[in-house]
Amino acid sequence: MPDCLFCKIIEGSIPSDTVYEDADVFAFKDIHPKAPVHVLVIPKKHVATLADCNDPAVLGLLMNRVRTIADDVLNLAAGYRVVINVREGGGQEVFHLHAHILGGKKLPF
Ligand code: AMP
Ligand code: ZN
């Protein structure tokens, strides 16, 4: 296994505030929330960045879970933002692919 913070969160060796888990994805609260609701959704398969992921199955699954977690788990019917930071220039700090779900207030853009 790569020495990866989010892989360790998936396996449970680093604790997280888990909001959802199934066979393919894991979702937990961001430790430094940037909105009233700020959840990270990650594939259980380690992929470093979106740019490195040439697998439509992983990407399709991730986006589909984002959608269902936002509606069914986080109750963000009013709307939300999905952010994926890609590589250092895009602000990525943890190199395990993750989608941020941000919501709980009207988000300026
Ligand atoms: P990014 O900048 O897109 O790579 O986002 C990484 C996110 O992971 C940041 O928003 C951090 O606040 C968050 N983060 C880092 N460590 C943890 C942790 N142990 N538990 C939950 N979120 C974390
Ligand atoms: Zn990982």
Could you please describe the fold and organization of this structure?
23% of the residues lie in helices and 23% in strands. The protein is of the alpha+beta class. The chain has a single domain (5-103), classed as HIT family, subunit A (2-Layer Sandwich). It has a five-stranded antiparallel beta sheet, covered by helices on one side. The chain binds adenosine monophosphate and zinc ion. Residues 5, 14, 16, 28, 30-32, 40, 85, 91-94 line the site of adenosine monophosphate.
Strand content: 15-25%
Query: What is the CATH third-level topology name?
Result: HIT family, subunit A
Please identify the structural class as seen in this structure.
alpha+beta
The small-molecule ligands in this entry are: adenosine monophosphate, zinc ion
**Strand line-up across the major sheet:** 1-2-3-5-4
CATH superfamily: HIT-like
How many strands in all?
A: 5
Quaternary assembly: single chain
Q: Which CATH architecture would you pick?
A: 2-Layer Sandwich
Mean pLDDT: 97
- Outline type: globular
Give the low-pLDDT segments: none
Order of helices and strands: HEEEHEE
- In DSSP terms (H or I, runs of 4 or more residues), the helix count works out at 2
> Gap between N and C termini, in Å?
37 Å
Helix content range: 10-25%
